[in-house]
Design goal:
Chain lengths: 482, 512, 154
């Protein structure tokens, strides 16, 4: 037994030694490279490089970046300009990037990701291994330029997908639901560190393998609901190429802690700018932060996902009756309880001057706001209740909670809307929407007193006691005092 | 008369011989029994063995060499551990990278690390099997009770060594396993919270802070675990191991079956040394060993020289252990997941396999499963040799009459009860599923773990009464424990997936 | 023969020699492998190779100081050479002086070629290995010293 066990031991020890020393992938690669060097040793420099080449593990250790990259163990020719006509991995790095980003100072993984400490290609790629940031596909490598550079200041030929992705993000109005740099809506997740996320932070169950981050992003852009069951994200309807560009942009969103000596000066300026953004124009704001839900604003619609009504905020009849203060109030505070978020500086991140600009934009095509006549009649809310139930509750909800019509019981609405505004809307309706005119010349449905009564009832929505009663699902006693 | 110069040159000449003679006092391979006994007795490393051993203790089917395998795996972990210490850095910033470097660049690094991990796993396994062997051969009985306790101490040390080593790679596996472990240390909180005394008395929090040096698993925990793993625990283990081996000798060697009365055993080539008195020789007393029969003018019966028989056997067992470890290490890498990330919990976060049984119990009640039951088990194991005082039947598997049948019936019983309990909880849930507002104290008292303990205890009391034997009751309880441990470990390994839900196979775990 | 010396015990068999031999061989193989471990396969630590620019940037007779890399690059008619500015006494950074180099810490003085001319320094300033990278740039390997007077010809 001793004999058998000892022999087995020797066999495996020797086997392990052979495997490590002679079976190593990198050793074979380096021997190949030495042959290439020999072929190219035609001049003094070539001969010198051949003489100095040693078969050994090579690494670039950069404590400043926290990386140890052993890619150069196999990629020996990465910075040798003569190596243009050889196969990978011996070939020189394309596009002269290494002239500006020498390997000795940057390593490789800061741009390409992958498992730097690895010594085999499969381990370096790490796309099905326990490594947080696998090797990026070559076409997506430009995403990491944003780590140190302001992408907009780079030559567009170097970062085409990244710039396209940034543009599409604005064009598709992604900011309506997602926050970036503190600006945006509140319905979707914050995207500032989207590029830093690892595989485990995504739901991969609806994705075919391989389960990489970029495949998830691409699939998600092409059909959000298929990737995330129950997703509230509207399909941005993008082509394959556009999905790729947006994916690259998402991968670039990583506030990576890189020493300042590595940052390009325009990056530092960009960081400053994000703290103190220059105000955008009203049209830009509308396009980036409103259009996803409100479309061009001239028509209202029913949102299937949220099962709510989205009002026409550039509709003529709204703009001509709503005061700028009314619009400002709704934009700043949103409509709590609905999918309209607050947009003021502490919530949605819009500067006061930007909100003013947006209001100006909303009102741009509208006729001047009319001065609404003052009300003369006092209203009885009890009578108003009956009228409301008959004429209004069907769309506006029993308690003004909206649904297929705006939520007139919403606290922000109650605070911002003047009585005149409500009366005028009831009387004249809203052009381009389903709100009828209850005092149109053709068929007057409500008298002035009726309107006053309805107004009185609608105002009870804003009262605290009413809120409590509603919360307890208590129906107001008919004929009782509120 | 030779001059001093000639003497000097002659001494230089004879250097090889004189050095060899100084080192090896015998100078040649032992040829007589006296020389063989000297080879054992005069050697620092070998003299902890007795000079003669009983033939029956060399039988593979008595011990299966398990104790030696355990010691062998320990030796392997010590050597490979020392080598790993050359490169490992116990800092949260550097630990993971240093393990990657060991795996990818260090000469023999990948292999050594694998050996270390596999030897550690085998050590836990062999220690547990060794304990079962000692129990079922009744080798804990008088005079070996203390050695049984020492062995229990060694078991706890082995598990502690494995647990402390688990954290050192600082990867996701390590971080979350120790998070769970430290929260199990915190489990008395469950009890003190339930009765509302945590503000004044918090042994759970105390234990956790002692272990971690903080309220979270961080640099302080890593340093403490490192010191425990590479220094304190190995030192304690080697000390206890020394006591363990010493006691084997002082208790009369390994427990073995009784020699048949009368003449020499034919079995195994036993010999009996015959000592004839000589006038010129006086005898010094080397040791007093308790035995049953006084033999005068006769050497101990049925013993053979340690050199070479015992040492062949030990060497063979050791090399088998080494070979097994090497084969495993060549093909299967020690696991290493991503860098520890407190923001992303592993799901499921599983303890090492030997703690998974406890983790299953902990999923019912942290305090009962994590603290109470393990303590009860250890205390129960410790009490066995003091409650079962009747000697007889040591050194044979299932030595006393009726053991075999009690073993089989307890096996069946424990399998049914454990599996039944698991099936019940998987299908119907437990107290909180039916009474959502039930006080935690009820759950601490009545949970599958505590019920299993009570049922097994009841079963062994029944055996005690019906078979009228403490040993048989002990056999039934131990068997139930082994079965319960095995089934719970298997269940938690294979059938528990993300969120600790039940799954038939890991392939069915939802892709998250 | 004393009663303690029973007849010779003989244990010569091929199997036992082979087993014992293979055991020692196994131990020896393991030891040989293990002793290799402490020798680092790749030296850790940050890169100490510096690319300084193409040779055309440095005219003959010029000297260029590189503060971050702690060296001065010289070029004369015979070629390039680089002298480290780390004082060999206790490691301070020497400054360029009229005669050569001067160390502000304990007053070591060196001449233009790094030879010690005064002060407590025990040996001359190291000359560092100069060569050219694959893309033609001058590259200094600060981990390698070369004998004083070595020139790198371009």
């Amino acid at each position: 037994m001793l004999l058998g066990a000892s022999i087995l031991t020797i066999v495996y020890l020797v086997g392990a030694a052979v495997h490590e020393n002679y079976g190593a992938q990198w050793s074979g690669v380096q021997h190949q490279y030495r042959e290439i060097l020999r072929e190219k040793a035609k001049d003094d420099r070539g001969r010198e490089l051949l003489a100095k080449f040693r078969i050994e593990l090579k690494q670039v250790s950069l404590p400043a970046l926290g990386t140890v990259d052993r890619c150069v163990t196999c990629h020996n020719g990465i910075d040798d300009p003569r190596m243009t006509d050889v196969a990978l991995p011996h070939r020189v790095h394309p596009e002269g990037i290494l002239d500006i980003h020498p390997v000795d100072r940057f390593g490789c993984t800061v741009c390409h990701h992958g498992q730097g400490p690895a010594t085999t290609f499969r381990d370096a790629k790490a796309d099905d291994a326990y490594w947080d940031y696998p090797l990026l596909p070559p076409e997506m490598t430009e995403a990491t330029c944003a780590t140190c550079h302001d992408a907009e200041k780079l030559p567009s030929a170097q970062v085409p997908l990244l710039l396209t992705g940034m543009r599409l993000y604005q064009e598709k109005s992604c900011g309506s639901c997602h926050k970036l740099n503190g600006r945006g809506g509140a319905l979707g997740p914050v995207l500032d560190s989207e590029g830093a996320k690892t595989r485990h932070q995504f739901t991969m169950s609806n994705l075919q393998p391989p389960h990489t981050i970029w495949r998830w992003q691409e699939a998600h852009f092409r059909d959000p609901g298929a990737v995330m069951a129950g997703s509230q994200m509207r399909n941005p309807t993008v082509t394959r190429q556009e999905a790729l560009a947006l994916t690259v942009y998402m991968l670039s969103l990583w506030k990576r802690d890189v020493p300042e000596s590595y940052l390009a000066p325009d990056k530092i300026e960009q960081k400053y700018r994000s703290l103190h953004p220059a105000p955008l124009s009203g049209e830009q704001i509308y396009g980036q932060y409103c259009a996803a839900c409100h479309g061009n604003g001239t028509y209202s619609r029913w949102d299937k996902t949220f099962k709510r009504f989205i009002p026409a905020i550039r509709g003529v009849s709204l703009i001509s009756t709503a005061t700028p203060e009314y619009l400002a109030s709704n934009i700043q505070h949103g409509r709590p309880g609905t999918q309209m978020p607050a947009w003021d500086q502490h919530a949605g991140g819009l500067l006061p001057e930007e909100i003013t600009a947006v209001i100006k934009y909303l009102r741009a095509d509208a006729p001047a706001a009319e001065k609404l006549p003052a009300l003369t009649l006092a209203g009885d809310s009890t009578r108003g209740l009956a009228l409301f139930l008959r004429n209004c509750a069907g769309c506006h909800g029993m308690d003004g909670r909206g649904g297929i019509a705006p939520e007139i019981g919403n606290p922000v609405f109650q605070k911002a809307a003047t009585d005149e505004f409500i009366v005028r809307t009831v009387r004249s309706g809203r052009q381009g929407t389903a709100m009828p005119a209850f005092q149109s010349p053709d068929a007057p449905a409500l008298s002035d007193q009726d309107v006053a009564d309805v107004l009185a009832y609608v105002r009870t929505f804003g009262q605290p006691k009413r809120e409590k009663a509603l919360a307890q699902n208590l129906a107001p006693a008919s004929g009782g005092k509120p | 008369m030779a001059t001093a110069t000639q003497e000097f040159i002659r001494n230089l000449h004879e250097l090889p011989h004189t050095v060899k003679d100084a080192w090896f006092r015998l100078g040649k391979a032992p040829e007589s029994e006296r020389e063989e006994s000297q080879a054992t007795f005069h050697n620092l490393f070998l003299h902890i063995h007795s000079v003669r051993v009983h033939v029956r203790t060399l039988s593979p089917t008595l011990t299966f060499g398990l104790g030696l395998m355990a010691a062998g795996t320990f030796l392997i972990t010590v050597i490979t551990g020392l080598l790993l210490m050359v490169y490992y850095k116990p800092s949260t910033d550097l630990a993971y990278q240093s393990i990657k470097d060991i795996h990818f660049t260090v000469y023999t690094g990948r292999f050594i690390r694998n050996i270390h991990r596999w030897a550690a796993q085998l050590m836990v396994l062999t220690v547990l099997l060794h304990m079962a062997r000692v129990f079922f051969t009744g080798s804990y009985k008088k005079p070996r009770e203390f050695n049984w306790l020492v062995g229990l101490g060694l078991l706890v040390m082995t598990l502690a060594l494995s647990f402390t080593g688990y954290l050192l790679p600082w990867d996701q596996l390590a971080y979350w396993a120790i998070t769970i472990g430290s929260n199990i240390a915190n489990s008395p909180r469950e009890l003190t919270d339930a009765i509302g005394v945590t503000r004044w008395m918090d042994p759970g929090g105390f234990q956790k802070r002692l272990l971690l040096g903080a309220n979270y698993v961080g640099q302080d925990a890593l340093i403490r675990f490192y010191v425990l793993h590479v220094f304190l625990l190995p030192l304690a283990l080697v000390t206890l191991l020394g006591v363990h081996f010493w006691r084997i000798r002082k208790d009369g060697g390994l427990a073995r079956p009784e020699d048949p009365m009368g003449g020499p055993a034919e079995w195994g080539g036993a010999r009996r040394a015959v000592f004839e008195p000589i006038a010129t020789k006086t005898y010094g007393l080397m040791a007093l060993v308790k035995g049953k029969r006084p033999t005068v003018n006769r050497g101990p019966e049925n013993t053979v020289m340690s050199w070479p028989h015992l040492f062949w056997a030990e060497l063979a067992v050791f090399m088998v252990t080494v070979a097994t470890t090497l084969v495993l290490s060549f093909y299967w890498d020690a696991p290493l997941k991503e860098l520890a990330n407190p923001a992303i919990p592993e799901n499921p976060a599983k303890a090492p396999w030997y703690f998974l049984g406890i983790q299953e119990l902990v999923s019912y009640s942290a305090f009962t499963g994590g603290l109470l039951i393990p303590v009860i088990v250890v205390v129960g194991l410790a009490l066995i040799p003091f409650l079962d005082r009747k000697t007889g039947g040591e050194g044979t598997w299932f030595g006393t009459p009726g053991e075999g049948s009690v073993f089989r019936s307890s096996l069946l019983f424990a399998v049914l009860v454990t599996v039944g309990m698991l099936v019940f909880t998987v299908n119907f849930g437990w107290l909180r599923s039916w009474f959502p507002d039930i006080h935690q104290l009820w759950i601490i008292i009545f949970n599958p773990g505590s019920l299993l303990v009570l049922i097994f205890a009841a079963w062994s009391l029944i055996v005690l009464k019906r078979r009228d034997s403490v040993r048989l009751a002990a056999v039934s309880l131990f068997t139930c424990f082994v079965v319960g441990f095995t089934i719970l470990t298997y269940f938690a390994t294979v059938h528990r997936g993300p969120n600790w839900h039940f799954y038939w196979w890991p392939s069915q775990w939802p892709v998250h | 023969m004393s009663r303690l010396d029973p007849p010779r015990v003989s244990r010569r068999s091929f199997l036992s020699i082979a087993s014992l031999g293979s055991f020692f061989a196994a131990v020896g193989t393991a030891a040989a492998g293990l002793f290799r471990l402490p020798n680092p396969a790749v030296l850790p630590g940050p890169v100490r190779r510096f690319k300084l620019g193409s040779p055309e940037q440095f005219a003959s007779g010029s000297e260029t100081a590189f503060a971050d890399e702690n060296l001065v690059l010289f070029r004369d008619d015979e070629g390039f050479y680089a002298i480290s500015t780390t004082c060999t006494h206790l490691g301070c950074v020497v400054a360029r002086s009229k005669q050569g180099f001067a160390c502000p810490c304990h007053g070591s003085r060196f001449d233009d070629r790094g030879k010690v001319v005064g002060g407590p320094a025990p040996r001359p300033l190291p000359w560092l290995e100069v060569s050219r990278a694959a893309d033609g740039q001058i590259v200094i390997n600060a981990d390698n010293e070369v004998p004083a007077g070595t020139r790198y010809r371009v």
